Amino acid sequence: MEILGHLGYGFGIALQPINLLYAFIGCLVGTLIGVLPGIGPAGGMALLIPLTYGKEPASAIILLSGIYYGAMYGGSTTSILLNVPGEAASVVTALDGYQMARQGRAGPALAIAAIGSFVAGTIGIVFLMLLGPPMAQAALRFGPAETFALMVFGLSMVTSLAGRSLRKGFVAMTLGLTMATVGVDLPTGLIRFTLGIPKLMEGFDVIVVAIGLFAVSEILLCAEKVRTGEVLYRQVARVWLSAKDFLYSLGAVLRGSVLGFFIGVLPGAAHVTASFLSYALEKKFSKTPERFGQGEIRGVAAPESANNSAAVGAMIPLLTLGLPASAVTSVLYGALLMVGVKPSPFLFQKHPDVVWGLIASMYIGNAMLLVLNLPLVGLWVKILKTPPRWLFPIVLAISFIGVYSVNRSALDLILATLLGVLGYFLRKADYPLAPVILGLVLGDLLEQALRQTLMISGGSLTIFLHSPIAISLFVLAAVVMVAPKLIYRRGVTLETET
Amino acid sequence: MKSEGRLGGVCVLAFAVAYLAVALSIPAASVGDPLGPTAFPVVLGCFMVLLGVTLATRPDQAREGGHEAPGRWGIVAALAGFLGIYGYSLPFVGYPLGTFLFLGVTARLLGERSWPVTVGFSASISLGIYLLFTQVLDVPLPLGIIEGIRG
Which of A51, A130, A159, A367 is most buried by a 10 A CB count? Predict the structure, then answer.
């Protein structure tokens, strides 16, 4: 009952005309980002952060999360129509979605993606509402030792899921952590690793790094392939779904939704893992597994549902523990700090307007996406046909607005360019980027938690052995280092089979 | 492919050694803080040295079908270079003019052939983005030289 009261309060905020407008803009821009190949939700959110300056914290986060699930959603459109996944989570959608489009069933494929996302988003939000407050309550009992262990768990999960090579994942994570050590060391006031550059005293800004590493490097990478010819796309007759198709896919939608949410809660490449795993399970338990990859509508329904509920689930660690656990929530974390809200277990108590406004706006955003996207499919396809020689420079020019607005500093722009070059080489050499950004965000918190813990214990590491929570988290961290090898094998066969 | 992996490992190692050297030069003095400001960076540096050594000596198997695009280094280097110049000059050249030049130059670089299209598109897009952000979305952007001429 209390939850309904909170939710009512949230709707009061989310339904304010200005916030409705922000949710609308967020969904629209987010879908655009999802449609464009490359930039992805994290980079896209980062480059649109300037839109949130001077706004109320609740409005700012409503806008940004609109961009987030809009992007998740937009990725599916291009997967189905062009076989070009706009972002990583849509890769599996392309397997059956594009086949459906080739068979003239692009309409039903797009419709089930839209409806599945809507249902999944809604189910995810209900779980978030029910689980969020008690989890935040439990997190209040965490001391520095438990917080440290939790962050170790989060980092190891992200690192082990992020790429093919565990060692390269570790390099990426450590790189992020080393970047976090640049600047003033708060407890002692000592200046570390600034190499005499005054600008670096404040350390690296998450937003600048996210835009440089994700957006700029992606464009550099794409620029190499500019002249590889035009992509063909399939005509869409009518975006609609028959009752028969709907009932046939409903089970897949529900299974994907629930699975996706719980994978989303865990730190890691949440929505990517969620969509791959739900597709694999759907295929495994299907009576007609041979139809997967040939245009099976359930093969679109399950991953599309899973990645949307995972996007909601990923909000849980951020809202209840104050810890980001993915690249996207790291950017949200940075954005919250900028509008003066410090994510922590107290978020539910101190900023109920932000939390419940966000939750309510997710319902609204989901409904908006459903209404918005079905009629706008044609527009997205047209935008995709913009010649890359114009599209790429435009994306860069807009992303520079994002960087410049952080501190109004040319040095940040140069830094973003350098990070873009770094990201380009990292991508080329198959190093994952998500652990870098997460390491950067968590690095400082991690070091402070460790130092506080050891201050309490007088320097003895045995303090961790006295906390059952910390021990369990360390064990889990060790398990996730090993387990992905098994999951990955599954993932790899899944790719090669189809 | 293997030599590329090795090169990556060597780069990691070089970075780690440099980082570690700086970390060790931080004064360790601290009161009541057993770790101090040095310990955490030193641990990170050592860990990265270890990773660099293993990657350099035993590189990962190259991914099949990876590295499919033959590197067009010239384009990438030129694009990054223009981007750096654009960023460096943005505050004093101003967003509209700087973006006009940047869009035009990079579109030509990426294969735009027609001059009228280059000039027309660059002018309208840079002005459009500038007006959208400053007038509609309330994000202030520098006018730079244009402001000087106007004033």
Answer: A159
Average pLDDT over chain B reads 86
How are beta strands A183-184 and A191-192 bridged, if at all? antiparallel
**Mean pLDDT value across residues B132-146:** 83
Which of A152-161, A462-471, B15-24, B41-50 comes out lowest in average pLDDT? Answer: A152-161
Does A212 have pLDDT greater than 80?
yes
Pick B83's closest partner by Cβ from A401, A417, A459: A417
The answer to whether A324 touches A344, Cβ cutoff 8 Å, is no
pLDDT at residue A230 greater than cutoff 50: no
Whether B82 and B125 map to the same domain: the answer is: yes
Least confident of A203-207, A476-480, B17-21, B59-63: B59-63
A470's tokens: 């910390």
Q: Are residues B48 and B82 in the same domain?
A: no
Residues B37 and B11 in one domain: yes
Domain count, chain B: 2
Q: Are residues B83 and B61 in the same domain?
A: no
Domain that holds residue B14: 3-66
pLDDT recorded at residue A269: 58
User: Helices A57-82 and A40-47 meet at what angle, rounded to 10?
Assistant: 140
**Do residue A219 and residue B69 have CB atoms under 8 angstroms apart?**
no
| pLDDT at residue A254, as a whole number | 93
Domain end point (choices B66, B83, B104): B66
Q: What's the gap between Cα A314 and its chain centre?
A: 8
Question: Is residue A464 pLDDT above 50, yes or no?
Answer: yes
Chain A hits for B35, CB-CB cut-off 8 Å, are: 450-451, 454, 459
- Residue whose structure tokens are 């509508």: A297
Does an H or E element contain A253, and which? helix A243-265
Do B90 and B40 share a structural domain?
Answer: no
Cβ of A390 and B125 within 8 Å?
yes
Same domain, residue pair B82 and B61: no
Please count the residues of chain A.
498
By C-alpha distance, which of A121, A363, A381 is closest to A239? A381
First and final CA of chain B: distance in angstroms?
A: 58
B74 touches chain A (CB under 8 A): no
Q: Which residues contact A188 (CB under 8 A, 6 or more apart)?
A: B30, B33, B36, B37
The answer on pLDDT for A334 being more than 80 is yes
Q: Does B133 lie at the interface with A, CB-CB under 8 angstroms? A: yes
Are residues B105 and B89 located together in one domain of the fold? yes
Q: How far is CA A87 from CA A142, A190, A218, B50, in A?
A: 35, 41, 12, 33
**Taking CB atoms and an 8 Å limit, are B37 and A192 in contact across chains?**
yes
In whole angstroms, give the CA distance from residue B41 to residue B30: 15
User: Among candidates A306, A220, A209, which has minimal Cα distance to A265?
Assistant: A306
Residue that terminates a domain, selected from B66, B89, B117: B66
Which value does ipTM take for this structure? 0.92
pLDDT for A424: 92
Same domain? For B79 and B146 the reply is yes
